[in-house]
Amino acid sequence: MLLTRALVVAVALASLPALAQREATRGALSRLEESLPRRLNDGVLSLKDLTPALVVSTQPAFEQTRAWYPAAAVTALARVFGAGALRACEACMAQRLTVEEGRLEQHSTSLSVQELVRLDELTRGASARAVSGIWIDETMEGVAVRIVDLRNGRIVLAENFDQNLVSATTSRTTVTLAQELERRSRGDSLTHLFVDLGLLPQQHISLDWLEQWGPDNANLSGFSVSIIDPLIGLGVSYFRVIPPAFNLMVGAKFLVSVPNAVITSLNPDNPQAFLGDSLFTGAFMLRLPLFKTNYALLASISTNGRVAIGISLLNFSLLPFLP
């Protein structure tokens, strides 16, 4: 009895990694179903342009998932492309044996695009020829997907999917960094438009056009136009982004009050302050971005003695709460 129980426990423990792996693969297939249509439709070709599609490989990574994974992978692809858009290529997944006089050759490598086209011609009958080939293989973390256009051999998509999309996030970060380095080498500008709405207890309302620059892109400088504090002011501003502090922006503005400048030019012997604004106004500013939205908390204090707390719109649109 004790031996039987020990064997049952040993079998159960041995099956835990397989169950865990299958859950990871199942989650990766779910992420694939969510992400693949958007990834393909963002490019030159759409899902419609890639069908009929030839399923070239559904290779499991574990012996325990050998019976389950191929069907699960095809089911996920069918939900993305449509069941009638897929075509199985059983010969693609089998080892090839070539027998000639005096020679016996076995091939277990991947098929070339020309071989895939030839196999499709032999098996499709009167149906339309396959437009793309799909490899969807299981990996340690999830699934690896590769889609190739059979008309010209172009790789349409090559990406790893896991249940938490860690691979996609890492790849996106790498691509973004590469694009940023290319932008810097070209000397292209990266411009932002901020709207500051400080309303309590006093007011500070202004617009900033800022250029992002520096070796780590942590500097923002440019022109500012104030509506209040001072009234109709023009000037310059500079901010420094502090990434460890949740991308806090610390900076200042130096503004000239246009009404006061006009009054001073008309009456230089008796200059007067218009609405309590000085001719020159300095403002110390803090902006704290709110998560990944285009909002930021704002705090400002100016040399006019005004303290304002409010909100900033970062690269705003008419409806900044919409993506």
Describe the structure.
This protein is an alpha+beta fold. Helices cover 30% and strands 37% of the residues. The protein is built from six helices and 15 strands. The protein has helices spanning 2-41, 69-81, 90-93, 113-123, 166-186, 258-266, and strands spanning 53-57, 86-88, 96-100, 103-107, 132-138, 142-149, 155-162, 191-201, 204-213, 219-228, 233-242, 248-257, 280-289, 295-302, 307-314. The protein has an eight-stranded antiparallel barrel. A five-stranded mixed beta sheet has the order 2-1-5-6-7, sandwiched between helices. Strands 3-4 form a two-stranded antiparallel ribbon. A hairpin with a 5-residue loop joins β9 (204-213) and β10 (219-228). α1 packs parallel to α2 (69-81). The longest helix has 40 residues, at 2-41. 21% of the residues are buried. The model is unreliable at 1-18 and 318-323 (pLDDT under 50).
Summarize this, please?
The chain is an alpha+beta fold. It is 30% helix and 37% strand.
The major sheet is characterized as: 8 strands, antiparallel, barrel
Identify the strand order in the major beta sheet.
8-9-10-11-12-13-14-15
Overall mean pLDDT stands at: 78
* Structure summary, number of beta strands: 15
What fraction, in percent, of the residue positions are helical? 25-40%
Helix and strand composition category? alpha+beta
Oligomer classification:
single chain
Which percent band covers the strand fraction? 35-45%
Q: Output the radius of gyration.
A: 31 Å
> Runs with pLDDT <50, length 5+?
1-18, 318-323
**What is the chain-wise order of helices and strands?**
HEHEHEEHEEEHEEEEEHEEE
Gross morphology: elongated
Q: Please count the helical segments.
A: 6
Distance between the termini: 63 Å
